[in-house]
Amino acid sequence: MSRPGCSVGSVLVSTGTEQGATARTAVVVTVRGLVKSYPAGRGRRGAASPPVRANDGIDLDVRGGEIFGLLGPNGAGKTTLVRQLTGLLRPDAGSVELLGHDIVRHPERAARLVGYLGQESSALDELTVALAAETTGRLRGLDIRAARAERDAVLEELELTALASRPLKRLSGGERRLACFAAALVGERPVLVLDEPTTAMDPVARRAVWAAVDRRRAERGTTVLLVTHNVIEAETVLDRVAVIDEGRVIACDTPAGLKALVADEVRLDLVWRDEPPLDVPGVAALRETARVTGRRWTLRLPQQRARAVVAELTGGPAFTALDDFTLTAPSLEDVYLALGGRRKGLVKA
Ligand SMILES: Nc1ncnc2c1ncn2[C@@H]1O[C@H](COP(=O)(O)OP(=O)(O)OP(=O)(O)O)[C@@H](O)[C@H]1O
Fold this sequence. Notes:
Elements: E1 12-13, E2 24-25, E3 27-38, E4 41-42, E5 48-49, E6 52-63, E7 67-71, H1 78-85, E8 93-98, E9 101-102, H2 110-113, E10 114-117, H3 129-139, H4 144-157, H5 173-185, E11 191-195, H6 203-220, E12 223-228, H7 231-237, E13 240-245, E14 248-253, H8 255-259, E15 265-272, H9 281-287, E16 291-293, E17 296-302, H10 303-315, E18 322-328, H11 332-338
Parallel strand pairs: 7-12, 7-13, 10-11, 11-12
Antiparallel strand pairs: 1-2, 3-6, 3-8, 4-5, 8-9, 13-14, 15-17, 15-18, 16-17
The structure holds adenosine-5'-triphosphate.
The site of adenosine-5'-triphosphate (ATP) has 12 residues, from strand 6 and helix 1.
Protein backbone atom coordinates (compact mmCIF):
# COMPACT_ATOMS: atom_id res chain seq x y z
CA MET A 1 0.00 0.00 0.00
CA SER A 2 1.39 3.39 -0.87
CA ARG A 3 1.79 5.84 1.91
CA PRO A 4 0.18 9.21 2.08
CA GLY A 5 2.57 11.86 0.88
CA CYS A 6 4.84 11.01 -1.98
CA SER A 7 8.48 11.15 -1.04
CA VAL A 8 10.96 8.75 -2.59
CA GLY A 9 14.26 9.81 -1.12
CA SER A 10 17.18 9.62 -3.52
CA VAL A 11 16.46 7.26 -6.39
CA LEU A 12 18.38 6.14 -9.44
CA VAL A 13 16.39 6.87 -12.56
CA SER A 14 17.17 6.85 -16.26
CA THR A 15 17.16 10.18 -18.09
CA GLY A 16 14.93 8.66 -20.73
CA THR A 17 17.44 9.06 -23.55
CA GLU A 18 18.62 5.94 -25.34
CA GLN A 19 22.18 7.10 -24.80
CA GLY A 20 20.99 7.84 -21.29
CA ALA A 21 22.68 4.71 -20.05
CA THR A 22 23.94 7.44 -17.73
CA ALA A 23 21.29 6.74 -15.19
CA ARG A 24 21.39 9.56 -12.67
CA THR A 25 20.21 10.27 -9.21
CA ALA A 26 17.51 12.80 -9.73
CA VAL A 27 14.65 14.06 -7.70
CA VAL A 28 13.94 17.31 -9.48
CA VAL A 29 10.95 18.52 -7.48
CA THR A 30 10.80 18.15 -3.70
CA VAL A 31 7.87 19.44 -1.68
CA ARG A 32 7.69 19.13 2.09
CA GLY A 33 4.90 20.08 4.48
CA LEU A 34 3.27 22.51 2.07
CA VAL A 35 0.38 24.44 3.60
CA LYS A 36 -1.67 27.14 1.90
CA SER A 37 -4.87 28.74 3.16
CA TYR A 38 -6.91 31.39 1.40
CA PRO A 39 -8.11 34.08 3.80
CA ALA A 40 -11.67 34.37 5.00
CA GLY A 41 -13.75 36.43 2.62
CA ARG A 42 -16.99 38.38 2.76
CA GLY A 43 -19.99 37.55 0.65
CA ARG A 44 -22.13 40.21 -1.01
CA ARG A 45 -24.34 40.54 2.04
CA GLY A 46 -21.37 40.81 4.35
CA ALA A 47 -21.62 37.20 5.55
CA ALA A 48 -18.17 35.93 6.47
CA SER A 49 -16.92 32.84 4.62
CA PRO A 50 -14.32 30.82 6.54
CA PRO A 51 -10.69 30.52 5.38
CA VAL A 52 -10.04 27.67 2.94
CA ARG A 53 -7.11 25.36 3.72
CA ALA A 54 -6.40 24.47 0.09
CA ASN A 55 -3.14 22.57 0.76
CA ASP A 56 -2.88 20.86 4.10
CA GLY A 57 0.65 19.46 4.50
CA ILE A 58 1.73 18.09 1.13
CA ASP A 59 4.90 16.03 0.61
CA LEU A 60 5.97 15.12 -2.94
CA ASP A 61 9.06 14.01 -4.83
CA VAL A 62 9.08 14.05 -8.61
CA ARG A 63 11.95 12.29 -10.37
CA GLY A 64 13.80 13.51 -13.44
CA GLY A 65 12.19 12.43 -16.72
CA GLU A 66 9.00 11.36 -15.02
CA ILE A 67 5.46 12.16 -16.16
CA PHE A 68 3.93 12.72 -12.76
CA GLY A 69 0.25 13.38 -12.24
CA LEU A 70 -1.79 15.22 -9.65
CA LEU A 71 -5.23 13.65 -9.78
CA GLY A 72 -8.18 14.84 -7.77
CA PRO A 73 -11.67 16.29 -8.01
CA ASN A 74 -12.55 19.97 -8.41
CA GLY A 75 -11.35 22.00 -5.48
CA ALA A 76 -8.91 19.33 -4.22
CA GLY A 77 -6.03 21.83 -4.19
CA LYS A 78 -4.12 20.82 -7.35
CA THR A 79 -3.87 24.26 -8.94
CA THR A 80 -2.95 25.83 -5.60
CA LEU A 81 -0.10 23.31 -5.34
CA VAL A 82 1.31 23.90 -8.82
CA ARG A 83 1.07 27.67 -8.46
CA GLN A 84 3.36 27.37 -5.45
CA LEU A 85 5.73 25.12 -7.40
CA THR A 86 5.96 27.73 -10.13
CA GLY A 87 6.64 30.59 -7.72
CA LEU A 88 3.33 32.32 -8.44
CA LEU A 89 1.87 31.79 -4.99
CA ARG A 90 3.65 31.91 -1.64
CA PRO A 91 3.05 29.01 0.76
CA ASP A 92 2.04 29.68 4.37
CA ALA A 93 4.44 26.91 5.45
CA GLY A 94 6.63 24.22 3.94
CA SER A 95 9.33 24.04 1.30
CA VAL A 96 9.55 23.69 -2.47
CA GLU A 97 12.83 22.74 -4.10
CA LEU A 98 13.17 22.72 -7.89
CA LEU A 99 16.41 21.33 -9.30
CA GLY A 100 18.18 22.37 -6.13
CA HIS A 101 16.65 25.87 -5.97
CA ASP A 102 14.62 26.99 -2.97
CA ILE A 103 11.51 28.37 -4.68
CA VAL A 104 9.93 29.73 -1.48
CA ARG A 105 12.94 31.99 -0.88
CA HIS A 106 13.60 32.65 -4.57
CA PRO A 107 10.28 32.43 -6.44
CA GLU A 108 11.73 34.38 -9.38
CA ARG A 109 14.01 31.43 -10.21
CA ALA A 110 11.05 29.20 -11.11
CA ALA A 111 10.55 30.96 -14.45
CA ARG A 112 13.96 29.76 -15.63
CA LEU A 113 13.25 26.18 -14.66
CA VAL A 114 9.58 25.65 -15.48
CA GLY A 115 7.40 25.93 -18.57
CA TYR A 116 3.96 26.50 -17.03
CA LEU A 117 0.62 26.10 -18.77
CA GLY A 118 -2.01 27.40 -16.37
CA GLN A 119 -5.76 26.91 -16.60
CA GLU A 120 -6.35 30.45 -17.81
CA SER A 121 -4.84 31.76 -21.02
CA SER A 122 -6.36 35.25 -21.26
CA ALA A 123 -2.94 36.96 -21.16
CA LEU A 124 -2.20 35.68 -24.67
CA ASP A 125 -5.69 36.15 -26.12
CA GLU A 126 -4.95 39.30 -28.13
CA LEU A 127 -1.90 37.76 -29.84
CA THR A 128 -1.84 35.57 -32.91
CA VAL A 129 -0.83 31.95 -32.47
CA ALA A 130 2.58 32.68 -34.01
CA LEU A 131 3.20 35.77 -31.91
CA ALA A 132 2.15 34.02 -28.69
CA ALA A 133 4.74 31.31 -29.33
CA GLU A 134 7.44 33.74 -30.43
CA THR A 135 6.84 36.14 -27.53
CA THR A 136 7.08 33.29 -25.02
CA GLY A 137 10.43 32.34 -26.54
CA ARG A 138 11.67 35.94 -26.34
CA LEU A 139 10.50 36.29 -22.72
CA ARG A 140 12.46 33.14 -21.96
CA GLY A 141 15.63 34.69 -23.30
CA LEU A 142 15.84 33.41 -26.88
CA ASP A 143 17.14 35.81 -29.51
CA ILE A 144 14.71 36.62 -32.29
CA ARG A 145 16.07 34.08 -34.76
CA ALA A 146 16.00 31.26 -32.24
CA ALA A 147 12.51 32.27 -31.03
CA ARG A 148 11.18 32.21 -34.59
CA ALA A 149 12.86 28.93 -35.43
CA GLU A 150 11.44 27.26 -32.31
CA ARG A 151 8.04 28.83 -32.96
CA ASP A 152 7.91 27.38 -36.47
CA ALA A 153 9.07 23.95 -35.33
CA VAL A 154 6.54 23.73 -32.51
CA LEU A 155 3.61 24.97 -34.63
CA GLU A 156 4.47 22.38 -37.25
CA GLU A 157 4.86 19.63 -34.67
CA LEU A 158 1.38 20.39 -33.31
CA GLU A 159 -0.14 20.96 -36.76
CA LEU A 160 -0.97 24.56 -35.92
CA THR A 161 0.80 26.20 -38.86
CA ALA A 162 -2.49 26.86 -40.69
CA LEU A 163 -3.74 28.83 -37.67
CA ALA A 164 -0.49 30.77 -37.13
CA SER A 165 -1.87 34.18 -38.11
CA ARG A 166 -5.17 33.90 -36.21
CA PRO A 167 -5.57 35.72 -32.88
CA LEU A 168 -6.12 33.30 -30.02
CA LYS A 169 -9.40 34.97 -29.12
CA ARG A 170 -10.77 33.94 -32.53
CA LEU A 171 -10.03 30.24 -32.07
CA SER A 172 -12.22 27.46 -30.70
CA GLY A 173 -11.64 26.46 -27.08
CA GLY A 174 -9.65 23.36 -28.05
CA GLU A 175 -7.57 25.20 -30.67
CA ARG A 176 -6.78 27.97 -28.18
CA ARG A 177 -5.69 25.44 -25.58
CA LEU A 178 -3.41 23.75 -28.12
CA ALA A 179 -1.92 27.11 -29.12
CA CYS A 180 -1.20 27.91 -25.45
CA PHE A 181 0.40 24.50 -25.04
CA ALA A 182 2.56 25.23 -28.11
CA ALA A 183 3.66 28.54 -26.59
CA ALA A 184 4.56 26.79 -23.31
CA LEU A 185 6.98 24.53 -25.21
CA VAL A 186 8.99 27.34 -26.85
CA GLY A 187 12.22 28.23 -25.04
CA GLU A 188 12.66 24.81 -23.59
CA ARG A 189 12.56 24.34 -19.83
CA PRO A 190 13.67 21.22 -17.93
CA VAL A 191 10.34 20.95 -16.11
CA LEU A 192 6.89 21.31 -17.68
CA VAL A 193 3.92 21.99 -15.41
CA LEU A 194 0.67 21.50 -17.27
CA ASP A 195 -2.63 22.28 -15.57
CA GLU A 196 -5.32 20.29 -17.39
CA PRO A 197 -3.66 20.87 -20.78
CA THR A 198 -6.16 18.88 -22.87
CA THR A 199 -9.37 20.50 -21.60
CA ALA A 200 -11.77 21.06 -24.53
CA MET A 201 -9.49 19.26 -27.01
CA ASP A 202 -10.65 16.62 -29.46
CA PRO A 203 -8.88 13.24 -29.52
CA VAL A 204 -6.53 14.28 -32.36
CA ALA A 205 -5.29 17.32 -30.46
CA ARG A 206 -4.98 15.27 -27.25
CA ARG A 207 -2.81 12.75 -29.03
CA ALA A 208 -0.63 15.56 -30.42
CA VAL A 209 -0.14 16.89 -26.87
CA TRP A 210 0.86 13.51 -25.45
CA ALA A 211 3.18 12.80 -28.39
CA ALA A 212 4.90 16.18 -27.88
CA VAL A 213 5.26 15.52 -24.14
CA ASP A 214 6.64 12.03 -24.74
CA ARG A 215 9.12 13.28 -27.34
CA ARG A 216 10.54 15.86 -24.94
CA ARG A 217 10.84 13.34 -22.17
CA ALA A 218 12.52 10.78 -24.46
CA GLU A 219 14.87 13.18 -26.24
CA ARG A 220 15.65 15.69 -23.51
CA GLY A 221 14.70 14.02 -20.23
CA THR A 222 12.05 16.69 -19.57
CA THR A 223 10.14 16.19 -16.34
CA VAL A 224 6.38 16.71 -16.60
CA LEU A 225 3.97 17.52 -13.80
CA LEU A 226 0.42 17.13 -15.01
CA VAL A 227 -2.74 18.24 -13.26
CA THR A 228 -5.81 16.28 -14.26
CA HIS A 229 -9.14 15.05 -13.03
CA ASN A 230 -9.49 12.73 -16.00
CA VAL A 231 -8.85 9.18 -14.81
CA ILE A 232 -8.53 7.67 -18.29
CA GLU A 233 -5.86 10.19 -19.23
CA ALA A 234 -4.14 9.59 -15.90
CA GLU A 235 -4.05 5.84 -16.46
CA THR A 236 -2.65 6.09 -19.95
CA VAL A 237 -0.01 8.81 -19.77
CA LEU A 238 1.32 8.96 -16.23
CA ASP A 239 4.32 7.16 -14.74
CA ARG A 240 3.19 7.94 -11.21
CA VAL A 241 0.25 9.73 -9.74
CA ALA A 242 -0.50 11.47 -6.47
CA VAL A 243 -4.17 11.36 -5.59
CA ILE A 244 -5.14 14.65 -3.94
CA ASP A 245 -8.25 15.09 -1.83
CA GLU A 246 -9.15 18.09 0.31
CA GLY A 247 -5.62 19.47 0.20
CA ARG A 248 -3.82 16.23 1.10
CA VAL A 249 -2.06 13.46 -0.80
CA ILE A 250 -4.14 10.37 0.01
CA ALA A 251 -2.10 7.97 -2.16
CA CYS A 252 0.87 8.00 -4.49
CA ASP A 253 2.10 5.23 -6.78
CA THR A 254 2.09 4.07 -10.39
CA PRO A 255 -1.44 3.81 -11.88
CA ALA A 256 -1.05 0.01 -11.88
CA GLY A 257 0.15 0.02 -8.27
CA LEU A 258 -2.83 2.10 -7.21
CA LYS A 259 -5.26 -0.08 -9.11
CA ALA A 260 -3.81 -3.17 -7.43
CA LEU A 261 -5.36 -1.82 -4.23
CA VAL A 262 -8.78 -2.69 -5.65
CA ALA A 263 -7.70 -5.50 -7.99
CA ASP A 264 -10.04 -8.13 -6.61
CA GLU A 265 -13.03 -5.93 -7.25
CA VAL A 266 -14.94 -5.09 -10.39
CA ARG A 267 -17.24 -2.26 -11.12
CA LEU A 268 -20.84 -3.02 -12.06
CA ASP A 269 -22.92 -0.28 -13.64
CA LEU A 270 -26.66 -0.84 -13.90
CA VAL A 271 -28.81 1.59 -15.87
CA TRP A 272 -32.53 1.23 -15.23
CA ARG A 273 -35.13 2.04 -17.90
CA ASP A 274 -37.24 3.85 -15.36
CA GLU A 275 -37.71 3.20 -11.64
CA PRO A 276 -35.56 0.32 -10.31
CA PRO A 277 -37.74 -2.68 -9.30
CA LEU A 278 -37.18 -2.45 -5.56
CA ASP A 279 -39.85 -5.11 -5.00
CA VAL A 280 -37.28 -7.66 -6.27
CA PRO A 281 -35.35 -8.58 -3.07
CA GLY A 282 -31.97 -8.90 -4.88
CA VAL A 283 -32.36 -5.38 -6.28
CA ALA A 284 -33.43 -3.91 -2.95
CA ALA A 285 -30.34 -5.45 -1.34
CA LEU A 286 -28.03 -3.89 -3.95
CA ARG A 287 -29.56 -0.47 -3.36
CA GLU A 288 -27.81 -0.30 0.03
CA THR A 289 -24.31 -0.15 -1.45
CA ALA A 290 -24.95 1.41 -4.87
CA ARG A 291 -23.79 4.92 -5.75
CA VAL A 292 -26.83 6.39 -7.49
CA THR A 293 -26.53 8.93 -10.32
CA GLY A 294 -29.93 9.41 -11.95
CA ARG A 295 -30.99 6.07 -13.41
CA ARG A 296 -27.46 4.64 -13.00
CA TRP A 297 -26.37 2.53 -10.07
CA THR A 298 -22.62 1.95 -9.67
CA LEU A 299 -21.38 -0.86 -7.45
CA ARG A 300 -17.90 -2.09 -6.55
CA LEU A 301 -18.08 -5.80 -5.84
CA PRO A 302 -15.75 -8.77 -5.46
CA GLN A 303 -15.51 -10.56 -8.81
CA GLN A 304 -17.44 -13.69 -7.72
CA ARG A 305 -20.24 -11.66 -6.24
CA ALA A 306 -20.47 -9.46 -9.37
CA ARG A 307 -20.86 -12.54 -11.56
CA ALA A 308 -23.58 -13.88 -9.29
CA VAL A 309 -25.42 -10.54 -9.30
CA VAL A 310 -25.32 -10.33 -13.10
CA ALA A 311 -26.62 -13.90 -13.42
CA GLU A 312 -29.43 -13.17 -10.96
CA LEU A 313 -30.44 -9.90 -12.64
CA THR A 314 -30.31 -11.16 -16.22
CA GLY A 315 -32.09 -14.45 -15.38
CA GLY A 316 -34.82 -13.00 -13.17
CA PRO A 317 -37.72 -10.55 -13.15
CA ALA A 318 -35.47 -7.47 -12.86
CA PHE A 319 -34.11 -8.00 -16.36
CA THR A 320 -36.97 -6.22 -18.15
CA ALA A 321 -36.36 -3.11 -16.03
CA LEU A 322 -32.70 -2.93 -17.07
CA ASP A 323 -31.72 -0.62 -19.93
CA ASP A 324 -28.02 -1.46 -19.85
CA PHE A 325 -25.36 -2.99 -17.64
CA THR A 326 -21.55 -3.10 -17.80
CA LEU A 327 -18.88 -4.93 -15.85
CA THR A 328 -15.49 -3.21 -15.95
CA ALA A 329 -12.08 -3.52 -14.35
CA PRO A 330 -11.54 -0.91 -11.64
CA SER A 331 -10.25 2.52 -12.64
CA LEU A 332 -8.39 5.16 -10.67
CA GLU A 333 -11.78 6.59 -9.79
CA ASP A 334 -12.57 3.38 -7.91
CA VAL A 335 -9.21 3.71 -6.19
CA TYR A 336 -10.07 7.29 -5.24
CA LEU A 337 -13.38 6.18 -3.75
CA ALA A 338 -11.86 3.14 -2.03
CA LEU A 339 -9.28 5.42 -0.39
CA GLY A 340 -12.08 7.50 1.07
CA GLY A 341 -12.20 10.25 -1.56
CA ARG A 342 -15.24 12.24 -0.66
CA ARG A 343 -16.26 14.02 -3.82
CA LYS A 344 -17.76 12.79 -7.05
CA GLY A 345 -15.65 14.97 -9.32
CA LEU A 346 -13.35 12.64 -11.23
CA VAL A 347 -13.93 12.48 -14.97
CA LYS A 348 -14.08 9.05 -16.52
CA ALA A 349 -13.65 9.74 -20.22
N1 LIG B 1 -8.15 32.81 -4.81
C1 LIG B 1 -8.84 32.00 -3.99
N2 LIG B 1 -9.49 32.53 -2.91
C2 LIG B 1 -10.18 31.73 -2.07
N3 LIG B 1 -10.29 30.39 -2.22
C3 LIG B 1 -9.68 29.83 -3.27
C4 LIG B 1 -8.94 30.60 -4.21
N4 LIG B 1 -8.43 29.76 -5.16
C5 LIG B 1 -8.85 28.52 -4.83
N5 LIG B 1 -9.60 28.56 -3.69
C6 LIG B 1 -10.20 27.41 -2.99
O1 LIG B 1 -9.14 26.52 -2.64
C7 LIG B 1 -9.53 25.17 -2.85
C8 LIG B 1 -8.57 24.50 -3.83
O2 LIG B 1 -8.71 25.13 -5.09
P1 LIG B 1 -7.80 24.69 -6.33
O3 LIG B 1 -8.09 25.64 -7.45
O4 LIG B 1 -6.40 24.57 -5.89
O5 LIG B 1 -8.39 23.23 -6.64
P2 LIG B 1 -8.18 22.30 -7.91
O6 LIG B 1 -7.93 20.94 -7.37
O7 LIG B 1 -7.15 22.86 -8.80
O8 LIG B 1 -9.61 22.33 -8.60
P3 LIG B 1 -10.05 22.26 -10.17
O9 LIG B 1 -9.91 20.82 -10.57
O10 LIG B 1 -11.47 22.71 -10.13
O11 LIG B 1 -9.16 23.19 -10.92
C9 LIG B 1 -10.97 25.20 -3.33
O12 LIG B 1 -11.82 25.03 -2.21
C10 LIG B 1 -11.12 26.61 -3.88
O13 LIG B 1 -12.45 27.05 -3.77
